[in-house]
Design a protein that fits this description.
With about 350 residues, the chain is an alpha+beta fold. It has nine helices and 14 strands. It is elongated, with a radius of gyration of 21 Å. InterPro entries: Serpin_CS, Serpin_dom, Serpin_fam, Serpin_sf, Serpin_sf_1, Serpin_sf_2.
């Protein structure tokens, strides 16, 4: 979701702003990026039209105030994304944005922005995504029992823990310092991958894994897995989270700064005259993991571990912090990604 919102900004960027976005987004030119954008859009639209085994909705909108003098080419390029609104009527503008997000996420995220947040806006770049899939091998509700989850080696909570024994793809990433398990959804086009560092490594092991992670290492790890008989334990949970200006701070640390600085932002590909920059960010995510499967939604507005291949583990027990990735196996595309660390932040 965040990547899509930033890519919208990238299409309108120039100069140093464009260079920073290209570096962080790892894209090489607007034409190629737009082709990839449209190819993925077409792929998911075709799958949904053919009634695939899962539901995945992805939509983007670029809302510009009526006073912004847009270049004519913007409407030609962002044919389905461009919307003109009157931010001087913030109630109506916020309602239109929230309706778009709510419809895309099937009501999981009914409110992304408030009238006050858009009342002084010239531009809102919004993305919404929704996924719902059922496990290929479902967990039996009768097997879900209360069990311990260790937030740290000292702090623990009792959580509902789903469990089942089966033949699953498992792997080890030496580079990331974790074991990986694939839980496929019906149809097997999409899977959830769980990245679990060793229990004994504690918080440092989890943090090291997060610091090292990138697309190349993930793809390589997912391709180097093997089937094995294993008993899986994973918490059943719901997650709803809102991240606002902390997102801008994180993107600053990654190397995107000009976009959020009114003095330096260059979005002149959108408009040669308007003083456009991103002053606020809002990202909301909702996820539910249950015995039947997963429902996830997200929306964004931009305002040393070396081991040989181990013997197959008897258990893959997610009783300490882990990462989860909902991954399109066919398109090799990450749909959602998150961490389960603190059960008190979920329900």
């Amino acid at each position: 979701s965040i990547w899509n919102a930033l890519t919208l900004a990238y299409f309108g960027s120039g100069g140093q702003t464009q260079k920073e976005l290209e570096e962080v987004l790892r894209v090489e030119g607007k034409v190629e990026t737009l082709k990839m954008w449209r190819t993925l859009e077409f792929l998911y639209n075709v799958r949904q039209a053919n009634k695939s085994d899962y539901t995945f909705n992805l939509a983007n909108r670029a809302y510009f105030d009526l006073d912004v003098d847009l270049r004519p080419c913007v409407a030609d390029i962002l044919t389905s994304e461009l919307r003109r609104v009157n931010f001087k009527e913030p109630d109506q503008a916020a309602s239109e944005i929230n309706e778009f997000v709510s419809n895309t996420t099937k009501g999981r995220i009914p409110l992304l922005v408030t009238p006050d947040q858009v009342s002084r806006a010239s531009m809102v770049l919004a993305n919404a995504a929704y996924f719902k899939g059922t496990w290929l091998y479902q967990f039996k509700p009768s097997q879900t029992k209360k069990d311990l989850f260790y937030e740290t080696l000292e702090d623990y909570h009792r959580v509902p823990m789903m469990r089942q024994k089966g033949n699953f793809r498992h792997g080890v990433s030496e580079e990331l310092g974790c074991h990986i398990l694939e839980l496929p959804y019906t149809g097997e086009a999409v899977s959830m991958y769980i990245l679990l560092p060793p229990f004994i490594s504690g918080e440092n092991g989890f943090n090291r894994m997060v610091e090292r992670i990138n697309g190349t290492l993930l793809h390589m790890a997912f391709e180097n897995m093997w089937r094995t008989q294993v008993e899986v334990f994973i918490p059943k949970f719901k997650l709803e989270q809102t991240v606002e200006n902390e997102l801008i701070m994180a993107l600053n640390r990654m190397g995107i700064s000009d976009l959020f600085d009114r003095r330096h932002a260059n979005l002149t590909t959108f408009s040669p005259t308007a003083d456009l920059s991103v002053g606020k960010s809002i990202h909301k995510a909702a996820l539910e993991i249950s015995e039947e499967g997963t429902e996830a939604a997200a929306a964004t507005a931009l305002i040393s571990f070396r081991i040989a291949r181990p013997a197959a583990p008897e258990q893959f027990k997610c009783n300490h912090p882990f990462l989860y990735v909902i991954y399109d196996n066919a398109a090799k595309n990450i749909l959602f990604m998150g961490a389960y660390k603190n059960p008190k932040a979920t329900s």
